[in-house]
Amino acid sequence: MHPFKIAIFEDEFLLANDLKRQIQQFNYEVVAIFRKAEEGLKFFGDLQRQEDLPDIVLMDISLAGKMSGIEAAQIMETKYNFALVFLTGMSQMDVFEEAFQTKPHAFLIKPFDIQQALGSIRLAVYQKSIEDQLLQCQKELEEKMVH
């Protein structure tokens, strides 16, 4: 099995690189780190092959640039198929409510340790695989009903 590919959206350089270093020790491949949502959206849009997209996106809610992580997740959720984990230092319920609208697979509250990060990543991958299986079953049932 190939290592899961992860894209990290995090404007704190040290945190992003530390997270990358730590999770790569556990058979995850960090394909890119973005400080700004706009950079990540352009990167995803420029990819030529679906298989080059990450399996998991770790998305900070507050990013450098004009666009928030929530706004970027809303755009990406309609275009791409990946597990989404929000990273945040915020604990206000209104922010969580807005973030929930993007259907994340997990939340990771800063500061976190590597075990918490790995647990959230594994949970997100598992939930995404269940979603994909359910969608496949639904598609098969719909096809059977048409024929």
Provide a short characterization of the protein structure.
The protein has 147 residues and is α/β, with parallel strands linked by helices. 50% of the residues lie in helices and 19% in strands.
Q: Topology of this structure?
A:
Elements: E1 4-9, H1 13-24, E2 28-34, H2 37-46, E3 56-60, H3 69-79, E4 83-88, H4 93-100, E5 106-109, H5 114-146
Parallel strand pairs: 1-2, 1-3, 3-4, 4-5
Could you characterize what this model shows?
The chain has 147 residues and is of the alpha/beta class. It has a single domain (4-146), classed as Rossmann fold. It is built from 5 helices and 5 strands. It has helices at residues 13-24, 37-46, 69-79, 93-100, 114-146, and strands spanning 4-9, 28-34, 56-60, 83-88, 106-109.
List keywords for this structure.
single chain; 147 residues; alpha/beta; Rossmann fold; 5-stranded parallel β-sheet; 50% helix
Share of helix, binned? 40-55%
CATH class: Alpha Beta
Could you tell me how far the N terminus lies from the C terminus, measured between alpha carbons in angstroms? 36 Å
Strand order in the largest sheet: 2-1-3-4-5
The number of helical runs is 5
Bulk shape? globular
Class per helix and strand makeup = alpha/beta
